[in-house]
Amino acid sequence: MEQVLQQIGIDQYIYLAILLFCIGAFGILYRRNAIVMFMSIEIMLNAANLLLVAFSTYHEDANGQVFVFFTMAVAAAEVAIGLAILVAIYRNIGSIDIDKLKKLKG
Amino acid sequence: MSTTILLLTLIFPLVGTLINGFWGKHLSKKVSGTIATMAIAASFVTSCLFFAYIQGSQEPVKIVLFEWMKFNYFSIDFGFYFDQLAALWLLFITGIGTLIHLYSTSYMSHDENFSKFFTYLNFFVFFMLILVTGSNLAMMFIGWEGVGLCSYLLIGFWYKNQDYNNAAKKAFIMNRIGDLGFLVGIFVTGYLFHTLDFIELKEQSFLAPTLGIATMAFFIAATGKSAQLPLYTWLPDAMAGPTPVSALIHAATMVTAGIFMITRLNFLFDLTPDVQHIIAIIGAATALMAATIALVQNDIKKVLAYSTVSQLGLMFLALGLGAYEVAVFHVITHAFFKACLFLGSGSVIHAIGGEQDMRHMGGLKKHMKITYATFFIATIAISGFPPLSGFFSKDEILLTAFHHNIVLWVVASLASILTAFYMFRLLFLTFSNKFRGTEEQEHHLHESPSAMTMPLIILAVLAAVGGLISIPGNSWLNEFLKPVIKNNAASHPHVLGTTEYMLMGLAVVGALVGLMVAYFKYIKNKQVPVNDNNVSGLQKLFANKYYLDDIYQSLIVHPLNFFGSFFKNQIDGLINGIVLSFGRVPSELSYQGKKAQNGNIGLYLFAFVIGVCGLLYYLFMCY
Amino acid sequence: MNCIIILLIYVLGAVATLASNSKNAAKTALVTSLINAVIALILTGEYLNGNDVSFTQQWISNPNISLSFVVDGLSLTMLLLTTLLLPIIILASFNTLYSKANQLYSLVLFMAFAMAGTFLAQDGLVYYIFWELALLPIFFIGLLWGSDEWKIRKRVMVTFFMYTFAGSLFMLAAFAYLYTLTGSFAWSDLSKVVLSTKEANYIFLAFFLAYGIKIPVFPLHTWQANTYEKSPTIGTMLLSGIMLKMGIYSILRWQMPIAGNVSENILKTVIVLCIVGIIYASLIALRSNNLKRLLAYSSMAHVGLVAAGAYVGNSTGYQGSIIQMVAHGFVVVGLFYLADIIYKRYDTYEIKEMGGIRSQAPKFTTFFLIIMFASIGLPGTFGFIGEFTLLFALSEKELLYAVFAGTSIILGAYYMLKMFQNAVLGSTENKVFAEVTTKEYFVLAVICVVLIGLGIYPKLLTDLFIQ
């Protein structure tokens, strides 16, 4: 395991994770399509997962990896519910453009 | 003396009130009137019994029924105190009350609310008796306000006329101003001496710095009830009530309550000479002012009303000079002749169908012989011709004034000369010359029935001989009142010297002058007063009552109404606005904040990311 | 006999009334209130015999709260006022046919329960709970059965609710602070707490906000006239007859004993505010055209005097304010009932549209006169005893207070007689005013008997709280 980290340093992983997270964040901010936004969220989640795994190896502690499994399970559930909601919205208003979803304004 | 009999004196009028109040409608007018008259007559009998008792034994009776109110350092009893002073008032309240009740049975016989009238009248007598027999200031106050209530009810007896109601309301409110004074007086007295009981007050009173406030407050109360400056304006208006009411309440009894109260508290007033001076000055000023107004009045009852105010002023002059027994003497004689005059005017009004304007009267001498005779006697009594009662009592006042202060004497003498003039003016305009009313009225002219003339005759006799109770030099009254009044004149009697006889002579000459002027003006020249609008100069000032009513209207009533409207329309709205703004500020803030919540998910996310970035920056960079 | 029985019966009665149908609801409520009136009289007897009728039970140990209901002279007088006035109020409401009567009368009984609880509770927090609980029923009574358009009515009632509720929160804060000092909410502990002047000032003001709004004291009064006007008569009677006495009772029970050493300046300011309120309200009453509003402002003037007397803080003021609370309770219920009777016949509260009653209904006029003169404190009525004692208390503190507060007896006579003249006297051409019915006669007669009887022999009541 340590070899992996020797070949590619821990900071590279951090950079990658930050990059991924930023891609996800910007994706959410720029795109209006709900499904694409979902994908962006997943990217952000996975950035976090990547970091967890990387640090787990770095500290030689398996806890981090256990967390990742949890996260993945939660993410799966979230996707299931999220997509279901999206389908319901689509059926109602015929679009999943979030600019059209303004019913919650105060 | 059995306390039961004394209490019965009070209970009889109350029983009469209750019977007429609850069942009066079902009783015939005759029964109802008889019950009311009998109730007062029964009181008169017990009063006489009590008078006989106290004349003999000199021992006042105090009856305490129960403890009425209790404070941490003293208590007030529900009790009665029958002494010489009360005895005098009891006698003439119930005595004249009986006569006036009897008179009313005939005078009011055509009124639809006959039984109600007697309910109120009996109720009045009841409260008047409480006023004079209360054993402490608070008990006196029950009567004091109670008679005010009855006065209100009786002035506004013909309630369909809103002018009468206005007069009744005015009387009550003016009296209430005085009543506030009474309350303040009670509070100061109670605070100072820790008692309100008359006997204890007499024993325990001492000169305290604030005692002047109390006596002044009591005097203000008296100016309200006894119609003195500056609170007298209600009394002339109170003539709106039926004439027997004017005779009983607004001439003989209730308006003398102020004099009674000050006499009752003479030991307090003696301690505060400054207040006594004020009383004397106010009394003299009222006497003169009211007399001048009476000169130009054309309403027969108004003349008598101002005359009453004027005579009360003379009584207050005597009170202010410390001559309490003289004031009491004048109260009694005044009760006789003024009641007679009022009842006589009632008889006249009755005869010519409700007309009260003297310009439409005249020549009634022929038609109403008894009324004229009694009226004549009462007029010379009030004008101060010897040997009728008014001469003695008024002369005592003038004598006392002369010995104290020559200015007061001049003012009082002037007032009594004017009295002679306006009373004879009244007499001549009403009874002499030819009738000036309509023919129909003339046709109906008649002497009143015996129920009305009987009281007139009795009162005229009393007005003639009443002065005997206190003839100068040998005064029964002064001796009788000795235990009540601390500085009694009986202990230092007037020496009847040349000065005194000169003064008496002067007073009689003055009255004669008044009589002669009236005679030449109204009998020789047959003048009739002109319309109110055509008078000028001083007469106009008198006719408009020195504009006092207008001054009150614009200085007190209008500002009150103005502030009422101002508070109601402006201030209340302002306060309400401030209160509501406590609700509006958060509401407005949230309304603005709501705009950020525009439903755009992109914006929310953006704000979210910026927020997280800000937080992270803060966490990492600032620590 | 235990005082908690009264509370239980009110709750049971409220449930029973709710369960009954609309027809019998009023009767059920009346029976309940009568039972409680009798029980209250029995309690009074037991109290005078020296029996203990209190109830105490630990409720929550941390924070230390106990269900403690204690009967003493003050509480008992207020309890008597509540229990005796309630049957009168309910009987007076028989004139009106309310829709959903079972709900209405259930709320009325529930309110009586809360008010009685307020008067009995000796634990600060329990007291506070009852205090707030009393607000809910009257809010719904006014909201659902009130007059005028729904929208206006709703705004008035919500303002009333929020205003009084907001004021009460300051009182809760004061109790919380006192708890940190003593570790207890019990009155016996709180009244012994020693506060610095600064603390006392804050606590006094916090209490004042709660009570000043409830009473109401100038300038916290603006909810009152609107609420009285829009509420149904039964609600107005409950509000003015009993509920506003909660404020004065609380001054005597909680505010003065706990924060008595408040700085003299604050105390004087508050008394002056009360007196200003008397004159202010009297003047507005003088210009009021609506009978209910006039009575509302007149009530405010009278209660201002009671509050001033309560804040004087000496024994005369204490007994005077208790006496006048009872007197005012009966007087104001009587006056609103009279207004209601006129409204039933003339269908208006505008004074200008009335008149000519006296010639048609002499009995009604007599009742009107008696209650009106009791209201303006004529000697021989109970109102006089109260006003006399209160003004005397003020004069003990400062004679000028008594003089200025005393102007209320002049102004009171002015606006009342003016109203009487325009509303009852005079003549009318076409309006018909039927004489009082037996039921109305009975209610009015009871009120008059109480007012005159206690006016002549006040010891019947005052022996309860004057040692």
From TrEMBL, chain A:
Its EC number is 7.1.1.-. Keywords: Cell membrane, Membrane, NAD, Oxidoreductase, Quinone, Translocase, Transmembrane, Transmembrane helix, Transport. It catalyses: a quinone + NADH + 5 H(+)(in) = a quinol + NAD(+) + 4 H(+)(out). The chain crosses the membrane at residues 12-30, 35-55, 67-90. GO terms for cellular component: NADH dehydrogenase complex; plasma membrane. GO terms for molecular function: NADH dehydrogenase (quinone) (non-electrogenic) activity; quinone binding. Gene3D superfamilies: 1.10.287.3510. It comes from the Bacteria. It is found in: Cell membrane; Membrane. GO terms for biological process: ATP synthesis coupled electron transport. It is a multi-pass membrane protein. NDH-1 shuttles electrons from NADH, via FMN and iron-sulfur (Fe-S) centers, to quinones in the respiratory chain. The immediate electron acceptor for the enzyme in this species is believed to be ubiquinone. Couples the redox reaction to proton translocation (for every two electrons transferred, four hydrogen ions are translocated across the cytoplasmic membrane), and thus conserves the redox energy in a proton gradient. NDH-1 shuttles electrons from NADH, via FMN and iron-sulfur (Fe-S) centers, to quinones in the respiratory chain. The immediate electron acceptor for the enzyme in this species is believed to be a menaquinone. Couples the redox reaction to proton translocation (for every two electrons transferred, four hydrogen ions are translocated across the cytoplasmic membrane), and thus conserves the redox energy in a proton gradient. Belongs to the complex I subunit 4L family. NDH-1 is composed of 14 different subunits. Subunits NuoA, H, J, K, L, M, N constitute the membrane sector of the complex. This is NADH-quinone oxidoreductase subunit K.
TrEMBL record, chain B:
It is found in: Endomembrane system; Membrane. One of its GO terms (biological process) is electron transport coupled proton transport. One of its GO terms (cellular component) is endomembrane system. It comes from the Bacteria. Residues 135-419 form the NADH:quinone oxidoreductase/Mrp antiporter transmembrane domain. Pfam families: Proton_antipo_M (PF00361), Proton_antipo_N (PF00662). Keywords: Membrane, Transmembrane, Transmembrane helix. Its main location: membrane. The chain crosses the membrane at residues 6-23, 35-54, 86-105, 117-135, 141-159, 180-199, 205-224, 245-263, 275-296, 303-321, 327-349, 370-386, 406-431, 452-471, 501-520, 601-620. GO terms for molecular function: NADH dehydrogenase (ubiquinone) activity; NADH dehydrogenase activity; quinone binding. The keyword Lipid biosynthesis does not apply. InterPro entries: NADHpl_OxRdtase_5_subgr, ND/Mrp_TM, NU5C-like, Proton_antipo_N. PANTHER family: NADH-UBIQUINONE OXIDOREDUCTASE CHAIN 5. This is NADH-quinone oxidoreductase subunit L. The lineage of its organism: Bacteria, Pseudomonadati, Bacteroidota, Flavobacteriia, Flavobacteriales. The gene is nuoL.
From TrEMBL, chain C:
Belongs to the complex I subunit 4 family. Keywords: Membrane, Transmembrane, Transmembrane helix. It is a multi-pass membrane protein. The chain crosses the membrane at residues 73-92, 104-121, 127-146, 158-180, 200-221, 233-254, 266-287, 294-313, 325-343, 364-393, 399-417, 438-457. This is NADH-quinone oxidoreductase subunit M. It is found in: Endomembrane system; Membrane. The keyword Membrane applies. It comes from the Bacteria. Residues 122-407 form the NADH:quinone oxidoreductase/Mrp antiporter transmembrane domain. It comes from Paenimyroides baculatum. One of its GO terms (molecular function) is ubiquinone binding.
